[in-house]
Amino acid sequence: MLTTIIVNYNVRHFLEQCLLSVRRAYSPSLGGGWGEAVWVVDNASSDDSVQMVRTHFPEVKLIANQQNTGFAVANNQAIRASEIRNPKPEIRNPKPEIRNPKSEIRNPYVLLLNPDTIVREDTLTKCVEFMETHPEAGGLGVKMMDGSGQFLPESKRGFPSPWVAFCKTFGLAAIFPKSKTFGRYHLGYLDKNETHEVDVLAGAFMLLRRSVLDKIGLLDEAFFMYGEDIDLSYRIVQAGYKNYYFSDTTIIHYNGVSTKKGSLNYVRTFYQAMIIFARKHFTGRQASLFVAMIYGAIWLRAGLTLLGNFFKKSQLPVLDAVLIFSGLWLSKTFWANYFYHDPAWFKPTFLYFNAPFYTLLWLAALFFSGGYDEPFNLRRLTRGLLLGTVVISAVYGFLPLDLRPSRAVILLGTAWALLALAALRLVFHFFKTGNLSVGRTRPANLAIVGSQLESERVQQLLAKAGVERNFIGTAIPISDFGFRISDGPGSEIRNPKSEIQPLDEIAALYHLDEIIFCLKDATASQTMHWMERLGPRIEFKTVPEGSQTIIGSSSKDASGELYTTSVRYKIASPMARRSKRLLDLLLAVGFLLLAVPLLFLVKKPGGFLRNLVLVFIGKKSWVGYSSTQSEIRNPKSEIPPVRPGILSPADAFPGRQLDEATARRLDFFYAKDYEPGRDLEVVWKGWRELGRQAAKGA
């Protein structure tokens, strides 16, 4: 009856959870074994997705592409392949096939499903039953919620006509979401808890009648990532069929897993897809108007995205700069009156050169010390400001005499900056958390929903991942709506009459901040019911049966969050990457000053000069991974990418021939335990090879 197709790209942990939920949802009424009807198309993922499917879901049909073909092409591959009985279990590089209308059709329905979803146990059966009783239905979408339990408005949408595009672009749809005139993009005037005929189906869950696809064609491969669902929905309606929003079942869709929706790339890709749609389905003046509207939307959204991102990232540094500059001005005024007894003692150059210059140096020191990565970390704040003071003191001696104000002003400015910036973070922390415990954040109150045995396994995963939580207890499901709190093995024996409570009462009683659902014991239906009922004030996560990963997402626009026992690489942290880049630049400046003698000492002088330029412009790094690591990957231990290196950790052992396995291990530990001092050691021992051509990449 039903063929399910999942296109995956680098979301291995979400794909595993999705497949487990689909396996639970397949019932005998859908026909055949579940694995025979489920296809996974992997678009050249580098995160071990293919191996996971082969190992844990060998019954699933797998298409492993060698390049990212896009959403439409990948779905079409599986739709074509699933038409034929007894298809090959795996197709590595399937070529486009000419469809044979006389071939035997296996299943009359096709479900296009995103890998970052969880379906309820009744979802597939209910949806097929609806299609069976509504022959006019060409496609079906369902009610979707995000990882925080909130309804996703894209579950039901209208066609993006020029007027609809105008209302969405200029915010009228957001201001009047329930208006039939302005709110047609998300059809906000239609009750989300009732089934309706709609225009557009969401690509995350599209149940399609295969006979309709035979008439209208498959997904348009001109679309790479967005717009395919709108185009296909439009063609379904144009062919005389109806699209339905089906509210009797719900799925979780972790929006934003594969794409950052606040990025410029998302804005560009999404609206370019809309241009393709407009030029395909509209003609004449209407098409020109639509395309002009979309181009306007691109510039408007891009501008708003840039401003929003800039404000988010620069808000604290700008306030820090104002406070530091003000403190230097106050320190200058105080010292001129107190020590020199002359308000005009300091020259005007102090305000337009020294104060701005010192402020920039302090901000730079804070940035490179990680003070903005963890804004409420007072240790990093203090370290950054003291480092800035040391740098300012060193620079002070190189300044002309007329640009050297009193050193006391620098010390007074340091004291002011420490107090003022700490106070600023105290205020921010209070408004964000409601308490003044800066640097001493209370661990989140956590409850685990599941059996005692599975709860203990999850607690071990949290410990291995280094996640600190205030564990309240295990909420053991007694019924769909009743739970009994257990604080450890044997607690039920000690308290045989412990009260059975609904989960919302438990959450209120223990002030829960986070709930983890063990999907081995808690059904998907039960999980979604409580997520929707408790709402976004609590963070929700799920643990698939047998998985080593805890999955969640607190916002429809945020990428999914993983607690995993996988190796954590220091080199992947923003602070480590900044430190590595700064060290590259400092070494490049040092080598430039010593360029003449080095040209006679390094093995390839011309290559050395070329590498200097490449490092300066950010194309290369002095130290990267070995060439063998970039060419021969270990899929089970994918290390974070870095800039191609002139040298590698293997160069710390000059004169020794290291085999490929040893080189890979050295790269692994370099990434895992990275410190800037490691780069200095490699450069010190391998400096004669600084003219070598860099590895191709990692």
What top-tier CATH class of the domain at 2-156 and 192-258 fits best?
Alpha Beta
* Oligomer class: single chain
Shape: globular
Strand content: 5-15%
What number is the mean pLDDT?
82
Percent helix: 40-55%
Please give the radius of gyration in angstroms: 30 Å
Q: What is the distance, rounded to the nearest whole angstrom, between the alpha carbons of the first and last residues?
A: 45 Å
Report the CATH architecture of the domain at 2-156 and 192-258: Alpha-Beta Complex
By DSSP, the count of extended strands is 20
The helix count comes to: 23
- How many strands, which pairing sense, and closed or not: the largest β-sheet? 10 strands, mixed
Low-confidence stretches: 86-104, 492-496, 628-637
In CATH terms, what is the fold-level topology of the domain at 2-156 and 192-258?
Answer: Spore Coat Polysaccharide Biosynthesis Protein SpsA, Chain A
What does this structure look like?
The protein is built from 23 helices and 20 strands. With 698 residues, it is of the alpha/beta class. Among the domains are: 222 residues, Spore Coat Polysaccharide Biosynthesis Protein SpsA, Chain A, CATH 3.90.550; 120 residues, Rossmann fold (3-Layer(aba) Sandwich), CATH 3.40.50; 120 residues, no CATH class. Strands 1, 2, 3, 4, 5, 6, 7, 8, 9 and 10 form a ten-stranded mixed β-sheet that branches. An eight-stranded mixed β-sheet has the order 14-13-12-11-15-16-17-18, with helices on both faces. It has a two-stranded parallel sheet with strand order 19-20. Helix 14 links the parallel strand 11 and strand 12. Helix 10 packs across helix 11. The longest helix is centred in the middle third of the chain and has 55 residues. The chain starts with a strand and ends in a 12-residue tail after the last helix. About 5% of the residues have low confidence.
